[in-house]
Amino acid sequence: MARSALLNVMVQAAFKAGRSLSRDFGEVENLQVSLKGPSDYVSRADRKAEEIVLAELSRARPTYGFLGEESGESKGTDGQHRWIVDPLDGTTNFLHGIPHFAVSIALERDGNIVAGVIYNPVTDELFTADRGKGAFLNDRRLRVAGRRALVDCVVGTGVPHLGRGDHGAYLAELSRVMGEVAGIRRLGAAALDLAYVAAGRLDGFWEDGLSAWDMAAGIVLLREAGGFISDKTGGGKMFDSKNVVAGNERIHKELLRLLK
Ligand code: IPD
Ligand code: CA
Ligand code: CA
């Protein structure tokens, strides 16, 4: 599978940050027993991963803008391009020694996401997509699942928690969806949730309160895998609404019906 030069830069950055996260993840288990737990250590691992990604990307494309969860926004001299990066998606999993987290890197051109990479260093699964050229898991072409009835579907979601989200509104949504599907999963890393829908592992996904870096790479991946993604109204302004609904054409529509 031939990757574009830009996608290659993104993949190399994700690998390098992933190696750093893997090493730090090895230490996290040892720190669980300490009174304070590994939280400071994890914050450092997170920031280090973003520094690695930023260094790699800006070495290759020094004029591009950058939006990273840890370092915020820096405008580039090139007004057209912006990297959108979550160096560690699934921090709570990482902190608790649960091996389900990823580096997520997207490239935006004139306001559209044109390439995305999501890499889980523990499973060594690399999800990539270049707009117009398909989505891949390592070297395998991805396609969303074909299920047509909610009753057969496993759907991912994000559950609000202490200090986050509207718990009452979420419970109402959950009760509508759970009454119609085969299963619900809360895996804890939104970028991987979207990658899993692209890979046909999950039939659908919805979550509120996400940021651009949680969803950017997943958006292009999902679309290149033939999937549909929108905000809860069915519109395309997910960075503004902060919510996403995803699935194949049919399941996306069904979830929109339940969530509207
Ligand atoms: C979080 C994860 C989680 C989602 C949260 C995100 P972080 O990102 O993607 O699955 O439910 O809304 O903030 O903090 O681990 O990068
Ligand atoms: Ca995140
Ligand atoms: Ca993060």
Written account of the structure:
There is one protein chain. By secondary structure, the chain is an alpha+beta fold. The protein has two domains: 5-141, Fructose-1,6-Bisphosphatase, subunit A, domain 1 (Fructose-1,6-Bisphosphatase, Chain A, domain 1), CATH 3.30.540.10; 150-259, D-Maltodextrin-Binding Protein, domain 2. 40% of the residues lie in helices and 24% in strands. It contains eight helices and 13 strands. The strands form two sheets. An eight-stranded mixed β-sheet has the order 2-1-3-4-5-6-7-8, with helices on both faces. Bound molecules: D-MYO-inositol-1-phosphate (IPD) and calcium ion (CA) (2 copies). One calcium ion binds next to β3.
Fold topology:
Blueprint lengths: L4 H27 L7 H22 L4 E4 L3 E3 L6 E9 L1 H5 L6 E8 L2 E9 L4 E6 L4 E3 L2 E2 L12 E4 L9 H12 L4 E3 L4 H9 L5 E4 L4 H13 L3 E3 L7 H4 L2 E4 L1 H11 L1
Parallel strand pairs: 1-3, 9-10, 9-11
Antiparallel strand pairs: 1-2, 3-4, 4-5, 5-6, 6-7, 7-8, 11-13, 12-13
Helix pairs in contact: 1-2, 5-6
Bound molecules: D-MYO-inositol-1-phosphate and calcium ion (CA) (2 copies).
The site of one calcium ion (CA) has 4 residues, from strand 3.
Name given to the CATH homologous superfamily of the largest domain = Fructose-1,6-Bisphosphatase, subunit A, domain 1
**Lateral strand order in the biggest sheet:** 2-1-3-4-5-6-7-8
CATH architecture of the largest domain: 2-Layer Sandwich
Q: What kind of sheet is the major sheet?
A: 8 strands, mixed
* Assembly status: single chain
Q: Provide the β-strand percentage band.
A: 15-25%
Percent of residues in helices: 25-40%
Shape: globular
Count of all domains = 2
